Amino acid sequence: MKTELQLLPISKWLPAANKPVIISGPCSAETEEQMVATARQVAATGKVHAIRAGIWKPRTRPGQYEGAGEIGLEWLMAARQETGLPVTTEVANAAHVNACLKAGVDILWVGARTTVNPFSVQEVADALKGVDIPVMVKNPINPDLELWLGALERLNKAGITRMAAIHRGFSSFEKGPFRNTPMWNLPIELKTRLPELDILCDPSHISGNRELLSMVSQKALDLDMAGLMIESHINPDEAWSDAKQQITPTRLAQLIQDLIVRTPSSSNKIFQDKLLLLREEIDQLDDDIMSKFASRMKISEKIGQFKKDNLVTILQVSRWDEIIQTRIRQGKAMGLSETFTAALLRLIHDESIQIQNRVMNENRQKD
Ligand code: PEP
Ligand code: MN
To answer: How far apart are CA 113 and CA 277, in angstroms?
Structure first.
């Protein structure tokens, strides 16, 4: 389904002198002191453009801190008063939206556990009808691009044009190094479908721990994401939620300082000429690769005919195994990763089987 949204770029509603846009603050507002002190220290870094804090916390299991509730909005507004920075919080239903609008919250975000549910997203969208406020939409917890797009569309249809998406990774049963697997191909696909949509990355919820934050943040910037939402806390180890992934404002400043900001293009003439040459080389090599693939498939076709004439099956497991082993060894010697060679061979093999299957079974209906 085609997606078209009326959007205003983030540079128009959350200006940052230098890319990336940085939003930071605690996972949860816990007390007024914690909220205001965190905001003050975060703002003092001079590198942050908005303050975040969760007021209503959607916890996966009951019995954990579920947020301060409405009183937390007063603390958030105190943080804004103190720092002069816009503030943002998560809304999951109409009551949250109304409370935020009444309090004067600057930017709203829809959390991963809400994006997943069209009823809830629609409720939020209906409550926002006719209201001109920026809204950021986190990806759903499951890797479903349609749900993410659907949430953006519902809000856009309600009249919200100041929108951005936030990539915070996806839940999986298998626990890898990340709390939420990044699956970078999803935000890339979202950007391909909606080039005018700004996407921020939330390395905190992807990583789930402090150690991976820099690596994930850098990767997001290298994929040309517009900014980062990073959780910070004056005393991270004592945080009432997501303690392992929060960092002190000092560490936040260092993390931002260490990021390498690259641009998608450069106006440097020497760079442009060299890039053009390298791209020509790539185009030439791709041409060669494609024609080699085409020749290879022609041979598969011949083999199919040959096997058909001799009543031999398409698949010979031992041959396939030999191909995999030799090519992976060969690839490694040439500096190609095993994952890459194996994936490429699987594609080639699947296509080859399909071709042989077609050759063997054509005219079957007529026989
Ligand atoms: C959060 O930002 O604190 C939060 C609950 O995020 P998510 O919706 O990505 O889990
Ligand atoms: Mn959190």
So the answer is: 47
Alpha helix ranges (H) inside 223-268: 249-258
pTM: 0.85
Residue 63 makes CB contacts below 8 A (sequence gap 6+) with none
Q: Report how far ligand 2's centroid is from the alpha carbon of 6 (Å).
A: 30
Question: Which of these, 109, 77, 83, lies nearest to 10 by C-alpha position?
Answer: 109
Residue 233 C-alpha to ligand 2 middle, in angstroms? 11
The pLDDT tens digits for 6-57 are 999 999 999 998 789 999 999 999 999 999 999 999 999 999 999 999 999 9
Return the DSSP state at 139: P
HSE toward the beta carbon, residue 35, CA cutoff 13 A:
27
Is 54's C-beta closer than 6 angstroms to any atom of ligand 1? Answer: yes
In whole angstroms, how large is the CA radius of gyration of the chain? 26
- Taking the CA of residue 198 as centre, how many other CA atoms within 13 Å lie in the half-sphere pointing to its CB? 24
**Atom in ligand 1 nearest the alpha carbon of residue 205:** 9
Q: Which residues make beta-bridge pairs with 24?
A: 51, 230
pLDDT value at residue 122: 98
With a CB cutoff of 8 Å and minimum separation 6, the contacts of 145 are 186, 189, 190, 193
**Measured torsion, CA atoms of residues 47, 50, 51, 57, in degrees rounded to the nearest 10:** -130
Each residue's pLDDT tens digit, 216-232: 999 999 999 999 999 99
Distance from the alpha carbon of residue 275 to the mean position of ligand 2, in angstroms: 41
Q: Is the CB of 233 under 6 A from ligand 1?
A: no
Q: Which residue's alpha carbon is nearest to atom 1 within ligand 1?
A: 27
Tokens of 327: 């090519």
C-beta 141 within 6 A of ligand 1: no
Q: Looking at the CA of residue 52, tell me the nearest atom of ligand 1.
A: 2
Q: Cβ(112) to ligand 1 under 6 A?
A: yes
* Ligand 1 atom with least separation from CA of 114: 8
